[in-house]
Amino acid sequence: MNRLKIKKYAPRVVVNALVIFAMIIWIVPTLGLFITSFRSASDVARTGWWTVLNSPLKFTQYTFENYKNVLSTGGMSTAFRNSFIITIGGTVVPVFLAALAAFGLSKLHFGGRTFFYSLIVMMMVIPTQMTFVPVLRLYNKLSMSGTFVGLWLVHTGYGLPFAIFMLHNFFQALPDDLFQAAYIDGASVWVTFTRLALPLSVPAIASLVIFQFLFVWNDLLVALIYLGGHETVAPLTVRLSSLVGSYGQDWHLLTAAAFVSMIVPLIVFFSLQKYFVRGILGGSVKG
Amino acid sequence: MKRKVGFWKPFLYVGPAVVFLLVYQLYPAVQTVILSFKDRRSEHFVGLANYKYVFTSPTMLRAFTNNLLWVIFFTIGTVGMGLIFAVLVDRVKYESLAKSVIFMPMAVSFVGAGVVWKFMYNYRPPGAEQIGLLNQILVVLGFEPKGWLLETPLNNFALIAVGLWIWTGYCMVILSAAYKGIPRELLEAGQVDGANDLQLFRHVIIPEMKPALSVVVTTMLVNVLKIFDIIYVMTNGNFGTEVIANRMFKEMFQFANTGRASAIAVVLFLIIVPIMYFNIRQKLRGEA
């Protein structure tokens, strides 16, 4: 064997071993949670989840009882509905407003647009923590804390800077001539926005929608702050974190509740991963 | 030739967003600075008393120390492992599968990930049947089970490990894209010149990936300074695991002290500004 071959082949085993080892570390914890959520309360308390691997096909050891339990008495079904309501509003409103603003800032020529764009980009340095106390006070005054609308608007306010930044990048890249031609043909600004800019930027908007959707769905802190203790409007993350306190060592229930909170993002992630990755890259470096 | 769109029309497009940013970002940020100089009910000015608390009280100092621990180990860990994985997965046939698996925790909530790991760290006294995988492994190897989340400073590292599990995939995805952007000829030229993998890594790969690396490092720094969910769910800052963001939450809701909560926010802001400045500057460069 010459030197070049050694260099090529020797590490291949090591590379594969390392990657597979990493994959195991990344899969096993979630697998343990998944298996446990289908085991009976007494089994879970008595033995570790890995014991099912002795006879994984013995189906009598699995049960849906935990899921039934957390969805009814655990309040996870209400929380599931709330998460959907919060996330849909918290995604549609900011993405729409961001598209409008990004279009205005990149394709309409007016004095001060550099100023406004810089202002918006500057907002990205403000951590949300800087806004909690005053916004919550404002909300208490307007009776908007504990409401879905209040949360939609908050997620809009927090999500806009990044969303505008990302879409602005994309709109900038669309050729100006295209819009010029549309104007010459008599199209209004609104028509060029809805018929030209939006259809052309479907990939970018899709990335942004998925990004914002997962962000809002998985948010805990903002919901904790602005929904207060109102259980009726609490999303999955808030409900799950309070179950961690109340269920304590009832791992058969906690694991089922955790999985309920993870199922939607996992489906979104595995079916639309390409767009999600693009969204992350769009916000950092050009991919 | 630019089309004249009138004076007010652009504001129909940009205006709503600007209004939102004024109401939800600029106004509250300024307000928070003012509140940080007032008492717990924001009735009287108290000078620097809240800041004195932030920088001298044992609980806050504990939070700062822990956050520093997070900054060091979390940032080095996520970026380091992300970089290594980015290079490694490029060489295996099942690259996209491996990437999906490592990236997956980014899709689920930190609360969900917190429950996953709380279960992994589950502790029962020696002699009892362990149901947490890590302690079972310890027992099988002949060691005593450990209270991963109970013993300080072990618990801080146990929490940081959860952070690594969640965020490494994010770093890997960005760094992998940057790695693939390195011109092949550059790597081949290095190989022809007789550089081994390690030399190639240090003298070609790292310098070529500098822009992406600086974005990832600054993003991780900002994340880790604001870290909240993991601690809130897994220990709620008990057993010496307090961090800055969790302290702020407690001051706000548990102790209803808006002065102190605001001062904590301002300090956090001042630490984050220079990092975000570099982050955004790098992103704007990437845009050009």
Sheet with the most strands of chain A?
A: none
Q: For the record, give the distance between the C-alpha atoms at the N and C termini of chain A, rounded to a whole number.
A: 39 Å
Number of domains of chain B: 1
- What is the name of the CATH class of chain B? Mainly Alpha
Q: Which second-level CATH architecture of chain B applies?
A: Orthogonal Bundle
Q: State the helicity of chain B in percent bands.
A: over 70%
Span of the ends, CA to CA of chain B:
23 Å
Protein described:
- The complex is a heterodimer of chains A (287) and B (288).
- With 287 residues, chain A is mainly α.
- Chain A has two domains: 3-68, no CATH class; 73-282, MetI-like fold.
- Chain A has helices spanning 3-36, 41-46, 65-72, 76-107, 113-122, 132-141, 148-173, 176-184, 189-200, 202-218, 221-227, 236-247, 251-271, 273-282.
- In chain A, helix 4 packs antiparallel against helix 12 and helix 10 packs across helix 14.
- The longest helix of chain A has 34 residues, at 3-36.
- Mean pLDDT of chain A is 88; it is low at 1-7.
- Chain B is mostly helical and 288 residues long.
- Chain B has a single domain (52-287), classed as MetI-like (MetI-like fold), CATH 1.10.3720.10.
- Chain B has helices spanning 9-35, 49-56, 58-89, 95-103, 110-120, 133-140, 154-180, 184-192, 197-208, 210-225, 229-234, 244-253, 258-287.
- In chain B, helix 2 (49-56) crosses helix 13 (258-287).
- Chain B is globular and about 70 Å long.
